[in-house]
Amino acid sequence: MRKRILVPLTILLFCYVVAGQQAQPQPQSLTFYYDYRVNPGKEEDFMTLVKTVGQPVRDKLMAEGVIMAWGIEVPVLRYPGGTTHLIWFSVENWAGVEKVLNAMEAQLAKLAEDEAKAAADATRNRQKPAMTTAQRAREVFDASKTRDWLIRDLVFGYTSAASPAGLLPTTRYNFVKVKPGKGAEYRRTWEKYNKPVLDKLLADGTILAYGLSAEEVKTEGEFTHFSWTATSNLAAADKVVAAFAADRGRRSEEERAAIGDLFTSLIEPDKSRALVTRSIIFRVPGQK
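Now predict its structure.
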């Protein structure tokens, strides 16, 4: 994920910024990510495909309560061979994942059936058949570079304020590779030293949501866990950095060193990476 965008990975991962009147979602939910590399100059065509193929399915399943939230993010920092677009959706469990995947397969099959009939009509009328969805997809993105991720949300916090229409969050992801057998200790350490700072930032409105997540299905082993913070704009990142600096600054030199040594002992530091994305589509229940 961090080689391209991720989660879902991204995740991630903004599914907990919900409308104020909505009931609190259950923890340990799943976020599924589609990691794409769109060909240069085909960004608009990619969004057309989204609106034709996936968006109707995800919006329908959200209305039915299967999907809790979904969106599309793009990286703020580009690099050669990196991911250009990330689509994610969040559900309560594996049954939800299955419903979404089955619905997408049915949508693609229906489009292919309709396009085959239209092509036959065009041929009979000696007209050139229109490009199919599959053909357009091959022109728009490199399918061999598409990457899927499934993420388990371990810890999260989110604002209870109503999610305004048109909200397009910015999200920062921090990826780490926790050493074998240290997952539980890493989570306890993260909750002890990082969660209180994030809770304060959430309370004062600096951030909209935060979380700690882990890859549900182990794949390449690039990372095991990642934390994320979501804000309404990039400027809020300065306040997040300042809050952590202030928290550590209030501690003694010995305590700061102990915290740093503890985190370092639980992860492989050279594997740590960060990613910042901006949402171009963000859907939660209750938005118009």
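The first helix runs from residue 43 to 63.
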